[in-house]
Design a protein that fits this description.
TIM Barrel, 9 strands, about 40% helix, 13 helices, globular, alpha/beta, eight-stranded parallel beta barrel, binds (3S,4R)-3-hydroxy-2-oxopiperidin-4-yl beta-D-xylopyranoside, about 375 residues
């Protein structure tokens, strides 16, 4: 007869060693940051529909939150007056519900990926304030209402500020006036009182834009508008923002009494003729080999800088975890990142933690390691 389990010291030693190793090196991003914040990724159509099984497996293994890269934007869901296409959006939400993920809705009000008819009457004339508010309310009630209790967090207004912190002169602003933002939050809150409501924008670690977002949040809160969170997109670069800038921005935003979501994280390692951390999707530039220097692989020194930048940012996120609700990457692997085609089409970019084959890049391990680097 074999000895009972408790009398087999070699076996127990092996189990103990394995458990210790497991505890020391968590097996996934979501596990590493368990209890700190959600770790999310944006899903594209192939991932939502199950065609991209490799990426779906990575999503399920590594992440506990999802965002829709495009599936819930106005132009996709409601391309023509009265025509709603729910197919992809329903599948996106069903994926998150089935796998018990924190589901983000992106987005309700934006000046991009919104059809031109939204702002005009049948004769082509710009709508009145009252008519556009009615259209906005209907859109928000329809979309938020459909996923009430399932989508836990909505990006209500996206990119309403200029780089100097002043209000963007979008058609929303010009037709309704500055209170279109407050109205959108009020409608969303009415449609689902439990949902976390977010204002989302890029380049928020830069001083002028940060001042603008803080002004906006303070005004909204003073008026009693139900805003819960600011999304910092963090479409970043190797040298920008610095850890110090990122930390200062997170703390300044959190000091206004809202949560912070790192909502669209990626690090663009490729050169381009522009400056600053813009993520303005309307910028397009011609392709040329000089702007695509690494089509066959990333040089060691750039890989190292990328890893260091990810380590620095996650060091900050971990330190500031009490103020952060989620950290979401804008995509799953480098192969599908929007940064392969924006602002210059057809490039080979390396902005995420998983390479083109779905294998973890060195930065992945740096991000795992950043968890637990300061006392809980
Ligand atoms: C991008 C998507 O990733 C692309 O597929 C699409 O062509 C354009 O929009 N800020 C945002 C996101 O809030 O919605 C944008 O997503 C990236 C910048």
């Amino acid at each position: 007869m074999r000895a009972p389990l408790s009398r087999r010291p070699v076996l127990w030693a092996t189990i103990l060693m394995a458990a210790t190793a497991w505890a020391q090196q968590p097996g996934s991003l979501k596990q590493a940051y368990q209890g700190d914040f959600y770790v999310g990724a944006a899903m594209n159509a192939a991932e939502i529909t199950g065609q991209d099984q490799q990426n779906d497996a990575i999503l399920l293994e590594q992440f506990n939150s999802i965002s829709p890269e495009n599936a819930l934007k106005w132009a996709i869901v409601n391309p023509e007056p009265g025509q709603y296409n729910w197919g992809l959006a329903d599948q996106y939400v069903a994926f998150g519900v089935e796998h018990h993920m924190w589901i983000v809705g992106h987005n309700l009000v934006w000046h991009n990926q919104v059809p031109a008819w939204v702002f005009r009457d049948k004769g082509g004339k710009l709508l009145t304030r009252a008519a556009l508010l009615a259209r906005l309310k209907e859109h928000i009630f329809t979309e938020v209402g459909r996923y009430k209790g399932k989508i836990q967090s909505w990006d209500v207004v996206n990119e309403a500020l200029n780089e100097d912190g002043t209000p963007r002169q979008s058609l929303w602003y010009r037709i309704i006036g500055p209170d279109y933002i407050a109205k959108a939050f009020e409608y969303a809150h009415e449609a689902d009182p439990q949902a976390q409501l977010t204002y989302n924008d890029y380049n928020l670690a830069s001083a002028a834009k940060l001042a603008g977002v803080i002004r906006l949040v303070k005004e909204l809160k003073a008026e009693g508008v139900p805003i819960d969170c600011v999304g910092m997109q963090n479409h970043d670069h190797l040298d920008s923002p610095t850890a110090g800038q990122e930390d200062a921005a997170i703390r300044a935003i959190a000091a206004t009494g809202v949560k912070v979501a790192i909502s669209e994280l990626d690090i663009n390692i490729l050169p381009w003729p522009g400056t600053g951390n813009t993520a303005d999707v309307s910028i397009h530039m011609a392709s040329s080999p000089k702007w695509n220097p690494w089509p066959h692989g990333l040089p060691q020194d750039v890989q190292k800088k990328l890893t260091e930048q990810y380590a620095a940012l996650f060091g900050v996120f971990y330190k500031d975890r009490a103020d952060i609700s989620r950290v979401t990457f804008w995509g799953v692997t480098n192969a599908q990142s929007w940064l392969n085609d924006w602002p210059i089409p057809g490039r080979t970019n390396y902005p995420l933690l998983f390479d083109r084959e779905g294998k973890p890049a060195p930065a992945y391990y740096a991000v795992l390691q950043a968890a637990g680097q300061t006392a809980k």
